[in-house]
C-alpha cells in the first residue's frame, strides 16, 4: 500500500509539469497565420562575388538582409515588444493559391534575376566583354482573380502582344502601362509545343491602388525574361539560399569594383540596398528600417538607400508614404547611428559618390 501511495503522489506531482511542458511546446512551436520579419545581417560581398582576376579592396561592400519566418505564439509576443520587428498576415507574404515552396522558389528566382541585372550593369559600365542572348519571355506566376488566370498557364512562352514582337518582360510591362481598364490585348504564345493566340482584357488589380490613389490595372501576369548572359572575365556569385531582388545595387558595385583598377571602397565599410534594373536604375525595397539596424550593428559607415526620385506618395487613408531614403534617415536617427545615409536613384550616382569620396586614413 505504501508503494502505491508513493506512486500516486509522484503522478500528482508530475501532472502539472507535463501540462506545463505541453503548453510550452504548443506556444513555442505551433504556427500562427502570421509571418514576422526582423533585422538580419550585413554580409561582405567579397566573400560572395568572385570576378576572375578581380582587383582587391581596402574596405568592403556588404548586402543587408531581413530575417523572415512563420510566427508562433512566443515569437508573436516577442515581436510585439520589440522595435523593428514587423508582423504580417500570412496572405500578405504568400498570396492566395501559392505554397511556401512556391514563395521560396519565387524569391530565389528574383535573386537570380537580380544577380544577372547587376552583372549586365557592372560589365557594361566597366566596358568589359558581355553578350546577351534572348530566348523568350515566360509566365512565372499569375495573380489570383485577374483575367490572365483563366487564359494563361505558368510556363507559357510569350512571343508578341497585339502583333508586336517583344524579347523582354520589361517591353511587355512598358507596353501594358499605356493601357486602361477594359482594353483587350492579343497575346501569341507557345504552350506544350503548340502556338496559340489568346485575347485578355485589362482589369483592375484586387484591392490595389497606386500612390496617387488611382486603381492599378493590368493582366495579372508576373513575367521573366529568359536571357543568357556571357561575360569575360567570368564572375561567380554564390548566394546559397538568400532570396529576393534587393541586393541588386550592391552586387553591381562589388562586381564593378573588382573589374576596375580604382578601389571605390577607399577603406570604408559600405552597405546598401535597392533593386537594380538593366538600365542601372535603383528601385524601392521592403524592410529598409530593419536593414539599417542590421548595418549599424555590423559597423557599416556608409549606406546607400533608394531615393525613389523623392516621389511623394500617400496610402489609401491619405497618410504620406516615406521613400526608402527618408525611412532610412528616420531609423538611423532613432537608433543614434553614425552611418552616412546616401540617397541614390541610379548605379551611376552611387559610383560618382564613391569616386568623389576622400580615402579613409
Automatic annotation (TrEMBL):
SUPFAM superfamilies: PDZ domain-like, Ribosomal protein S5 domain 2-like. The active site is at 246, 291. Residues 242-357 form the Lon proteolytic domain. GO terms for biological process: protein catabolic process; proteolysis. The keyword Oxidoreductase does not apply. GO terms for molecular function: ATP binding; ATP-dependent peptidase activity; serine-type endopeptidase activity. It catalyses: Hydrolysis of proteins in presence of ATP. Residues 136-193 form the PDZ domain. PROSITE patterns: LON_PROTEOLYTIC, PDZ. Its EC number is 3.4.21.53. Keywords: Hydrolase, Membrane, Protease, Serine protease, Transmembrane, Transmembrane helix. It is an enzyme of class 3 (hydrolase). It comes from the Bacteria. The chain crosses the membrane at residues 17-36. Belongs to the peptidase S16 family. This is endopeptidase La.
Amino acid at each position: 500500500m505504501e508503494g502505491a501511495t508513493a506512486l500516486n503522489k509522484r503522478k500528482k506531482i508530475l501532472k502539472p509539469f507535463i501540462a506545463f511542458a505541453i503548453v510550452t511546446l504548443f506556444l513555442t512551436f505551433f504556427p500562427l497565420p502570421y509571418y514576422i520579419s526582423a533585422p538580419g545581417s550585413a554580409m561582405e560581398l567579397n566573400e560572395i562575388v568572385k570576378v576572375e582576376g578581380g582587383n582587391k579592396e581596402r574596405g568592403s561592400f556588404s548586402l543587408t538582409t531581413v530575417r523572415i519566418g512563420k510566427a508562433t505564439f512566443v515569437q508573436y509576443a516577442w515581436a510585439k515588444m520589440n522595435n523593428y520587428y514587423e508582423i504580417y498576415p500570412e496572405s500578405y507574404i504568400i498570396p492566395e493559391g501559392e505554397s511556401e515552396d512556391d514563395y521560396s522558389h519565387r524569391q530565389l528566382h528574383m535573386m537570380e534575376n537580380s544577380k544577372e541585372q547587376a552583372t549586365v550593369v557592372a560589365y557594361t559600365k566597366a566596358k568589359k566583354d558581355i553578350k546577351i542572348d534572348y530566348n523568350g519571355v515566360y509566365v512565372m506566376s499569375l495573380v489570383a482573380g485577374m483575367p490572365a488566370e483563366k487564359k494563361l498557364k505558368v510556363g507559357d512562352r510569350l512571343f508578341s502582344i497585339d502583333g508586336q514582337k517583344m524579347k523582354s518582360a520589361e517591353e511587355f510591362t512598358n507596353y501594358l502601362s499605356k493601357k486602361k481598364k477594359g482594353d483587350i490585348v492579343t497575346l501569341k504564345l507557345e504552350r506544350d509545343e503548340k502556338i496559340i493566340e489568346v485575347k485578355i482584357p485589362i482589369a483592375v488589380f484586387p484591392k490595389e491602388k497606386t500612390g496617387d490613389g488611382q486603381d492599378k490595372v493590368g493582366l495579372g501576369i508576373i513575367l521573366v525574361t529568359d536571357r543568357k548572359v556571357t561575360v569575360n572575365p567570368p564572375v561567380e556569385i554564390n548566394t546559397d539560399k538568400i532570396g529576393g531582388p534587393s541586393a541588386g545595387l550592391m552586387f553591381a558595385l562589388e562586381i564593378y569594383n573588382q573589374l576596375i583598377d580604382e578601389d571605390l571602397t577607399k577603406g570604408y565599410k559600405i552597405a546598401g540596398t535597392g533593386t537594380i534594373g538593366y538600365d542601372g536604375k535603383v528601385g524601392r525595397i521592403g524592410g529598409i528600417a530593419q536593414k539599417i539596424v542590421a548595418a549599424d550593428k555590423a559597423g557599416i559607415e556608409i549606406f546607400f538607400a533608394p531615393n525613389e526620385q523623392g516621389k511623394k506618395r500617400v496610402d489609401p487613408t491619405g497618410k504620406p508614404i516615406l521613400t526608402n531614403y527618408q525611412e532610412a534617415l528616420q531609423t538611423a536617427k532613432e537608433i543614434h547611428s553614425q552611418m552616412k545615409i546616401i540617397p541614390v536613384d541610379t548605379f551611376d550616382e552611387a559610383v560618382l559618390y564613391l569616386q568623389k569620396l576622400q580615402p579613409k586614413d
